[in-house]
């Protein structure tokens, strides 16, 4: 028996033909006044958008799931789909349904993806929306010593909404740092490199996999040359970045694939060079909570320091935070501007007042290039450029060289402003079809047609007055609707007075509607004028937008300069509001902070409660490593973080929360703060901790700042102490002598200061009261030997029974781990080994015997005894397993 062929309607046949071209996208298919989704797309859309899922042709052979929404609600529903990680293909009707007897032509007009969006409802004003591409060359090798690190990887970032375009390459650790900093919404990878990408970068970002042929060097090079209309990439200083060029070319290819062909706002590409900025690995970026936190709704550093006014300034601030400077001259130039503006509140107020008028000119000019700008947005662009004129003039009158240079580089764009002002009405609408967009003075024909249209009201009033008088019907009314056009309405009580030449068009419950020859002539004349007005307005507006494209580069330049000014005036405002001071940057190695404060925590304190400030001093000669002990909740982690944040703020150009800060230029900041399981990757807290710490030890430099918090706590006490001791010793003996803050629960590590001359002990002090403890949060010299963990448990509301039992156990444990008992254990073991092993030939036992015989019991410290016992235990266990 032959299988029945499923019937497919012409509409669904058209849908299927389009859908097969976009298998990875959710297809919004325009049908009349609705965007419809079908099949799997409909099921997915109904869940994401919370709209009703129905069935088309329910019960028939062609039954299929259906979900849709009105076309005018696209800007409401599209952002929800994209934010859910969907790639959305928008399929529109390409012809007027009234003008064809066949099925309406349809086609995809835009493919919106998480990384390719121009819709204001999808974008965040102060956050870039980067599309990234990562390229692994076929010859790229990987080392396995500390995770998978690929030695040669290309990367590129593009925000299509602003035209900002970046390129770089390096090993996968460097590329990972860039990915963490730029936080792309979407990453493009070749399909064969899916495994490499996941090994190197995990699943932090939404990835989309392209065919391998897209990632070809000659194709990429040709694509970039065509975009920039040049014969070489030397002018951008990127000609040697072979892997980076391939990644950059893949991005431009993808834009073409997503129907984004108008890209004249992408005018240049900027090289990111390793070594030009402070190095922070992914762990440090997360640990310091620069722009996001492990905790939901937590306040991050950028939340506190962002005093920018313009969207461009807000986006640039995040980039400055991600890429702090290591150039002394550039840092000082920023500090000079901040100091100058801070000293003159009137000047600061003037700049801020004008910045409020500017808006997002960077994205507005991108909308010009992509021909997605509305008449009202063109007026906004003109107003923004007018606000730049006084900023330019004001900057030129200052006595600060950097501000003067900003003013000199700003372009007044007088010709552009004049043309927009002459062409558009100041109250131009959002939609060109709403009319009254073009100024009547700009077009004589438009002025004449508008005069005709405007006189129509007067003409109708006169006609109404004349017909009332002629017919004797005083309640006559002339109106119009979309179905019948213009008509005269007569109530039923007067219909016997209607002249014979009037033609009845519609009967209502209480009235009749008529038309006349005069009214039909008037309608043809007026409607023709209105249609002509609309066409002229659309044509003139299109010509204006096309002309504005010539000014993309000067407007983009203005945008960059305004963003810089906005960041620097924001730093001045931040310093005024929070009593920040100018740091002193030096070429030396010392870090000297007087009364430093944590910029985020101090803003979260209850009103009136002062922040307890602390001093920190580090150098490479006398005090390289500070070992910080102290109770839980005493503020050890806060001191570590605030030290890093003060250095970070200083080198991005901001003033800092401290009374005084002398900072030797820092090139790398490493932190290991807090625990973070990576269960999805099969890694425990301790494994994550060791990976992060290994990364630090393998990458330190002589200008590094290292912050370690509770290293080794994820394993047994003996193991933890041993590891923490060995790490501290390694940092002390390493030629780089990296400046280090090490917060620990292991009070035994205080013993290190007796052996290692550049390790100093400090503790976060507490005051013991009767049955209570007062946390003073002050860093003072000397070690601490009490953690007050049980007291913290009591504060957390632990049942009294548990607290009482814990105290008893603590007493017993402290007795059993006294110095005397530990040394007695070693002495006993020493004696036993001498009795048992003298006549044995086993090399291991001989080795253990030598270890114990050579121990000097009289000088043995508790921690050394613990480590020695643990070492011998491991040797014996290894022997037993063998």
TrEMBL record:
It comes from the Bacteria. Signal peptide: none annotated. ATP binds at residues 630-637. One of its GO terms (cellular component) is cytosol. Keywords: ATP-binding, DNA damage, DNA repair, DNA-binding, Nucleotide-binding. Pfam families: MutS_I, MutS_II, MutS_III, MutS_IV, MutS_V. One of its GO terms (biological process) is mismatch repair. One of its GO terms (molecular function) is ATP binding. Residues 704-720 form the DNA mismatch repair proteins mutS family domain. This protein is involved in the repair of mismatches in DNA. It is possible that it carries out the mismatch recognition step. This protein has a weak ATPase activity. Belongs to the DNA mismatch repair MutS family. PANTHER family: DNA MISMATCH REPAIR PROTEIN MSH1, MITOCHONDRIAL (PTHR11361:SF34), DNA MISMATCH REPAIR PROTEIN MUTS FAMILY MEMBER (PTHR11361). This is DNA mismatch repair protein MutS.
